[in-house]
Amino acid sequence: MFLTLFKLLGAVCLAVVALVGCQTIRNSGNTPLPAPSPETLRIATYNVHYIILGRETGAWSVGDWERRKTPLDLAFKEVGADVIGFQEMESFGRGSGGRVNLTLDWLLENNPDYAAAAVGDPDVFPSTQPILYRKDRLTLLDQGWFFFSDTPDVIYSRTFNGSFPAFTSWAQFQDQRSGEVFRVINLHTDYASRSNRVQSIELVAERITPWMDAGETLFVIGDFNARLGDAVVDLLANKGLDFAPVQGATVHFNRGLNLFGAIDHIATSGNAQLMGEPIVLRKKFAGEWPTDHYPVIADYLLGPRP
To answer: Would the pLDDT of 15 be above 50?
Structure first.
């Protein structure tokens, strides 16, 4: 009896290992990132995970940040985006008041060609979802935010079910080459609560309606915590946003473990035409994983279609 049970447990373990292996292979792939064209606009989204200021060692600690900050900068440089929206770019600890952002400071220090939009005094502007952009390509026109809450215009208000605050940041730009104006909406939904995700995306749909009705070009990007075909994503797809067909995993659990399809997305409306396939940059940098997500990149041609 015990031998039979042992064999059964062994078979189950082997089946689980095989399933995980198949899922990892199916959701992997290393498509090379093409050089950006001067005719297109490169858009990217990247969840870079928060830093715990009060933790000296261990996962996501200040010590861990010292390990991964150079790889993150190398990833940023390889992406080479004209606009990149970040999620979880936060250094939090008691008494920090949101005024410490090690990741943002590091990337700006090491990439002087970029500036940060969707940032400001943390008393009045949440700055943990910045949108970095090339200063020689784009002009910042406006920026703002709203929280996934019954009181969306109250800063740091808790989500619909009372959990930790989550929000959308946005910025409006003008392309200095084409003169085209567009808006980037950068979101991060609650990973733990489906009801929060649904209500959050319903709020996004409500807030972008006036911009869509005005014929603006929009890029809705970020960590949706939902895959293509999920009702959460379909709320925006049914509204007329066109989602780039991102294939395979965009989150890897900080181990290169690609278990399920993309949850980080780039969607558009208006005068933006996707050129080529979106790319998920699945690789280590300097032998390390910079964070637990991969950057997602897509190139677009701005302007009315001929």
So the answer is: no
